[in-house]
């Protein structure tokens, strides 16, 4: 038996707006769009993707699952994401090498520091 990781589902009050935000933030392409679902991928035929699905209630607590990203330049990427509308958030992480941020609907994600060789 084998499993292929196809996508991560993100519940969203406005899946189109949030999906477009993430597509621009990641430089990914839109592969499906409707009022209820919006899917993006790194390339049209490359998995996994992110699918934003309508859920008519706002986020209420810390996310139990989040995405980590490792950029070439953490400071530059954090600044770019802040200019794009992300916010730094404190979820009790303390002083760490990563930066915890949130997208426009409050979903947390981390921008990691440089990988140690």
Descriptors:
alpha/beta; 4-stranded mixed beta sheet; 117 residues; 8 strands
Please provide a written account of the structure.
The chain has about 120 residues and is α/β, with parallel strands linked by helices. It has two helices and eight strands, in the order E-H-E-E-E-E-H-E-E-E. The chain has helices at about 15-25, 75-85; strands at about 5-10, 30-35, 35-40, 50-55, 65-70, 85-90, 100, 110. The strands form two sheets. It has a four-stranded mixed sheet, covered by helices on one side. A four-stranded mixed sheet has the order 5-8-7-6, with helices on one face. A hairpin with a 5-residue loop joins strand 7 (about 100) and strand 8 (about 110). The longest helix has 12 residues, at about 15-25. The mean pLDDT is about 95.
Short description:
With 117 residues, the protein is α/β, with parallel strands linked by helices. Helix content is 19%, strand content 30%. It has two helices and eight strands, in the order βαββββαβββ.
SSE layout and pairings?
Layout: E1 7-12, H1 15-26, E2 29-33, E3 37-41, E4 49-54, E5 67-69, H2 74-83, E6 87-88, E7 99-102, E8 108-111
Parallel strand pairs: 1-4, 5-8
Antiparallel strand pairs: 2-3, 3-4, 6-7, 7-8
């Amino acid at each position: 038996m084998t499993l292929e990781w196809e996508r991560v589902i993100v519940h969203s009050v406005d899946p189109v707006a949030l999906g477009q935000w993430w597509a621009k933030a990641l430089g990914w392409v839109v592969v499906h769009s409707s009022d209820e679902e919006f899917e993006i991928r790194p390339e049209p035929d490359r998995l996994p993707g992110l699918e934003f699905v309508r859920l008519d209630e706002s986020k209420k607590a810390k996310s139990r699952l989040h995405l980590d990203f490792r950029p070439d330049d953490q400071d530059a990427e954090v600044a770019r994401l802040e200019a794009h509308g992300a916010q730094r958030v404190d979820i009790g992480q303390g002083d760490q090498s990563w930066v915890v941020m949130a997208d426009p609907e409050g979903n947390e994600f981390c921008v990691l520091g440089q990988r140690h060789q």
